[in-house]
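Preliminary data (for renewal application), coenzyme A complex.
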Amino acid sequence: MGTAILGTGSYLPERVVSNQDLEKIVDTSDEWIRTRTGISTRCIGGKGDETYLLAARAAVKALQMAELSATEIDLIIVATISSHMLMPSCACFVQKEIGADRAFAFDINAACSGFVYALDLADKYIQADPSKKILVIGAETLSSRTNWEDRNTCILFGDGAGAVVLGHVEGSRGVIGAKLFSDGKLWSLLHMHTAASCNSELLQAASPGVHIVMEGREVFKYAVKAMEEAVLALLEQEQIALDAIRLVIPHQANIRILNKLVERLGIGTEKVFINVQKYGNTSAASIPIALDEANRESRVQAGDIILFCSFGGGFTWGATLVRW
Ligand code: COA
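Predicted structure:
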C-alpha cells in the first residue's frame, strides 16, 4: 500500500450536444437514447480541444490540488484510444504543454479500461521507487472516432479528460489492489480500425475508416458479467467485504449496464457514482472524470474504500480498490 491519489482534475469541452441535437443527424429520439443508455447530453470538442489539450487542462487542475508543480512529475501515463497523432504519444504532447520537463511519458491503450490499467502500472512504479510522482490521465476525443451516420454508436460517446497525481504516502492510504483481465478473442465485438495503411503491401482498396464498430448487445452481456467477476475476484484477493466499500466509481458506459451490475453485486445505488447522463461514454476518461467530480463534491472522505471497475474494447476489464 502507499500509492495515494494526491490530486484530481478533469476537463470537459464547452460544447454540449443534446439528444435532441442528435435527432437532427440520425434516426433516433431523446426517449430511445435515455431509456436505452441513460444519456441526455455529451460534450463534444472542437478546434483547440485536441486530446492532449483536454488532458493537459485536466492535469493542471490535478497538479494544483496536489500542490505540486509540473517539474516535480517523474512520469506521465496517458490512457487513450483517440490521440491526435499515432506518434508522438499524447503523453509527450501533455509533457510539452504543461512543462513537465523532468518526466518521461508514454501512452497506453486498454480502451475504456485504460485508466485502471494505467493506475496499476503507476502503482507498480511507485512501489519500486517511492520518490516518484506520477500523472495518470485518461483523455479522449471519441467524437473524432465516431461514425456520425451510425445511430447504434454515435449516441453513446463523448469527449473529455480526467487526471490524478500519484505519490507515496505513509500509512494505510492508497491503492489496495487491482485485478485486470483481457480477452483478445472477442476483439471484433468492439473495435476501431486504423486508417488505411500507406504500406503498398498492406493497402486495401476499401478503407474501413477510423470508426468505432460495435455489437451492442454482445458487448452489454460481456460487460456486466466481466465487471461483476472482476469485482468479486478483487474483493476475494484483498479479503475485503462488499459492505466495506463506501463508493463505486464505475466506467460510465451506459446506465443499464451499471444498474445490472449493481443489482447482481447487491450494492445500494446510493453507493454508485453516476454521471453518464451528462457526458456519455468518454472511454478511458470516464473514471477519472467521475472521480474528480466525486472528490470535489466531497463524496469521498479520508479512510473511505473506493472501488473502480471498467470494461472496454479488447476486451479489457478490471477493478481497483483504493483507500482514500
Ligand atoms: N435510436 C433509435 N433506434 C435505435 C438506435 C438509436 N440510436 N440504435 C439502434 N436502434 C434500433 C435498432 O436498429 C433496433 O431496431 P430493429 O429492432 O428494428 O432492428 C432496435 O433499436 C434495438 O436495437 P438493439 O441494438 O437490439 O438495442 P439494445 O436494446 O441492445 O440497445 C445499445 C442498444 C447499444 C444501447 C445496447 O446494446 C448497449 O448499451 N450495449 C453496450 C454498449 C456499450 O456500452 N459499449 C461500450 C462498452 S465500453
